[in-house]
Design brief:
With 439 residues, this protein is of the alpha/beta class. 31% of the residues lie in helices and 16% in strands. The strands form three sheets. The chain has an eleven-stranded mixed β-sheet, with helices on both faces. The radius of gyration is 21 Å and the shape is globular. InterPro entries: Amidase_CS (IPR020556), Amidase_dom (IPR023631), AS_sf (IPR036928).
Length: 439
């Protein structure tokens, strides 16, 4: 595996070693954002998240590989090369926090910090069979961490944990929030960790929950191991006494269109500027090379369109109250973490299953369920497809080639529901394990 930069510091080595994606600054250490033109740059300060982790006793010992400038779903760049998946080196580790996913998958780290603007914590966690969490905007402080397209705050990148254990999600969030990060980052809401919310005070105290399963998003049908994972999860939840209904996806194609338009709204100015420092070629696929710099009035229209979309999506969720026996809207949505099983290197990844959560600012976890098994995850013939993404995803699936690659699911909750989503993920994870133990 390429790119694990050991950081030599004078910090006390008495706590949990935590790895960092190569955008989290630690004073006096090299960081590059995986751009060739940034070689030799040293951080002049600590990112707020690094400052908090150090004060809480963490040992920050290495940085990990990521996609060039954060912009696509692999741990790959012209500076450090490619990070591969430790379960199957023929397939991607995901990205952009790919190095974090691979290192933790190898148990070279037990907990690390990645970032997520379209799935960049969740997809690497999913592709290495880990737990991860994409919280709502700025709940984990982002201040003084470096980012691409600085100032683009329509759909904001967030920092979040990837970890080998579901307990790591709560440990990370509670430790960071106990440090009162709103006193250090002006964007962080004044929301201390809440045991009340963790104990599902707004979800019937967790006594009987209703989960909605998104079998597909209406644009791209997930690969066979995801269907198997969803079916197993449904049976486990029913056996545990919970209710399960089907989720009707809400205008998924429009969500993808809006978020990709936001990403491309500067016409690629930021990445072109960084690449020009060295003349290195652009990699990846999320940024349209033909995108134009969007005039302010068009950007305002796009922002207004997003606002209307997320309001309609909220209404769509709230309307599920008529489907449940609890009288509440569904407590969470369970979805695949991706449409594709961990795919071949340098191939396009459909981001619709993760990106809609970033657009709506939904708190979303990822948890491991299964791995690609060629004996049961058979590729059935298909003649009709929902979209070009659906056809591309179908063609990319090769169960023998992708043998052993992890496939994971998400628990999608509401905005600023980090405590509840962690607890809901624990409940789903425990239900699956109990059902397996019983059989």
């Amino acid at each position: 595996m390429h790119r694990m930069q050991i950081m030599t510091t004078s910090f006390s080595h008495s706590g949990l070693p935590i790895s960092l994606k190569d955008q989290v600054e630690v004073e006096g250490t090299n960081f590059t954002m995986c751009y060739v033109g940034w070689v030799g740059k040293k951080a002049e300060h600590n990112a707020i998240i690094a400052e908090i982790l150090l004060k809480q006793g963490a040992v920050l010992y290495c940085r990990t590989n990521m996609s060039q400038g954060l912009w696509f779903g692999e741990g790959y760049n012209n500076l450090f090369g490619r990070t591969t998946n430790p379960y199957n080196r023929n397939v991607t580790c995901g990205g952009s926090s790919g190095g974090e996913g691979a290192l933790i998958g190898l148990r070279g780290s037990l907990l690390g910090v990645g970032s997520d603007i379209g799935g960049s914590v969740r997809i690497p966690a999913a592709y290495q069979g880990l737990y991860g969490l994409r919280g709502s905007y700025a709940r984990i402080p982002y201040s003084k961490a470096t980012n691409s397209s600085e100032g683009q705050e329509i759909v904001r990148s967030v920092l979040g944990p990837l970890t080998v254990s579901i307990d790591g999600l709560k440990l990370f969030y509670k430790s960071v929030l106990d440090a009162r990060p709103w006193n250090l980052d002006p964007w962080t809401p004044r929301m201390p960790w809440s045991e009340e919310r963790y104990n599902l005070s707004e979800h019937g105290e967790g006594n009987k929950l209703c989960f909605a399963i998104m079998w597909d998003d209406g644009v791209c049908i997930p690969a066979p191991p995801y269907k198997r994972a969803l079916e197993e999860t449904k049976k486990a939840l029913l056996a545990a006494g919970h209710e399960v209904v089907d989720w009707v996806p809400f205008k998924s194609a429009e969500a993808v269109e809006i978020i990709t338009s936001i990403w491309n709204s500067d016409g690629g100015h930021d990445i072109k500027k960084q690449l020009a420092l060295s003349g290195e070629p652009q990699l990846g696929y999320n940024l349209d090379p033909n995108a134009r710099d969007m005039p302010a009035h068009e950007l305002f229209d796009l922002c207004f369109r997003r606002t209307n979309y997320i309001k309609s999506a909220l209404d769509h969720w709230n309307a599920t109250a008529i489907q449940t026996s609890t009288g509440r809207p569904v407590d969470a949505i369970i979805t695949p973490a991706s449409a594709c099983a961990p795919q071949q290197h340098d191939t396009t990844m459909y981001l619709g299953y993760t990106g809609f959560c970033n657009l709506m600012d939904y708190t979303t976890s990822v948890f491991p369920v299964t791995k690609v098994d060629p004996k049961v995850d058979i590729k059935e013939p298909r003649e009709k497809f929902l979209s070009t993404d659906d056809k591309r995803n179908y063609d990319a699936y090769d169960p023998e080639f992708q043998r052993g690659a992890p496939c994971s699911l998400q628990v999608v909750g509401g905005k600023y529901e980090e405590e509840a989503v962690i607890k809901l993920t624990e409940i789903v994870d425990a239900a699956i394990k109990a059902k397996r133990a019983a059989t």
